[in-house]
Amino acid sequence: MIAAAIxxxxxxxxxxxxxxxLIFALTYFGLALGDIPFTRLDRSSIAILGAVAVLxxxxxxxxxxxxxxxxxxxxxxxxxMIISAQLRLAGFYDAVxxxxxxxxxxxxxxxxxxxxxxxxxxxxxxxxxxxxxFTPVLCLALQRARRDPIPYLxxxxxxxxxxxxxxxIGNPQNMLIGESAHLHFAAYFITxxxxxxxxxxxxxxxxxxxxxTQLFADVEPPAASESTHEHHRPPVLRRNLIxxxxxxxxxxxxxxxxxxxxxxSRPVAAMAAAGVILISRKTRPAxxxxxxxxxxxxLFIGLFIVIADVQSHHLLAPALHAxxxxxxxxxxxxxLAAVTLVLSNIVSNVPAVLLIxxxxxxxxxxxxxxxxxxxxxxxxxxxxxxIANLIVAQQAQPFAVNLKFREYLKVGVPLTLCCVTxxxxxxxxx
Length: 430
Hints:
Layout: H1 2-13, H2 18-33, H3 43-56, H4 62-68, H5 71-89, H6 92-101, H7 107-124, H8 127-144, H9 150-164, H10 172-180, H11 185-210, H12 212-216, H13 226-229, H14 239-258, H15 266-278, H16 285-290, H17 294-312, H18 317-325, H19 333-347, H20 349-356, H21 365-377, H22 387-396, H23 405-429
């Protein structure tokens, strides 16, 4: 009976666009909620269910749906996750953060070092990973030094987001934009570097001004945290693996910077680098694969299919025409930045980019640059704006450090609005 009912519904739906509108609306509504009440569904499973609905109701064939999946972006993302996983297992990230927090008795030096290194590492590897590794070590070291961790956790989250905007491999949405618009790695980096550096200066200034008292005042570490200290065990430092991985990453960056001269695409180069990393006597490939964020990969796949369905039925055309009649052109930098900022904080930055990118001409290079920068900076607006922010908040909780939503807004709102405004002005001038 269920199969017959589904058959009747799909037959009635053919020739109309309302199923596509409904699938799209429900999928993005679910993404905005983040989870569905009375279920264990998350954003990844919501996106997959949206893709299932597209196929189940014959809105696209399986072949057409697979054609809508951007496999080069997925290959690039998975490959870089494998490289980052090797550094994580080898103890590289833990060693870096321990070196940084050795200056806990010098608050200004610690703040500057934390912002610089978290931004730098996030530009090369996933900002989520940096926040995941840095947060526990940071909390532990600062509590032992009788310092308030909150200002430094704020700096970690915001600087990681800002730094990841500096390259086309710094975060998932930049990878997607880089592959979709065929952007040159070196040209993007050189163009946005001055902007990102200035945003990091604003980041340092905002933390220093808003938390000037806490940066210098000693605080008593919570008694509950004493029992949690012993649960954090740093990984064994494997220097040979670290050196090998950094050399491979350096070669990969050189290939990416060389661009078309070597006639090797970024996904192929990244896949080759990941292949070299997998060849090891000390690390099992299964351990590296276990650290790949498969939830994020599934989110991408589901959204690719849903957005492909939207594009094939031209569902966004009326909305774009309506915006154009009101004088709002997404090809223009200010409207694009405003829409990206709002949408990224409603449904998250990757779904927002997938929704916006069909409205941008392929040849509008600086517009693509602005989309990449603003969709990333938008993650700093609220605690919920970026997965990296949530990771910091969650990882700090076992140490009795509570980074609350209202507390985050004190830095997030002014910093994000200033940085996004600066980005619009910057791309207008250059």
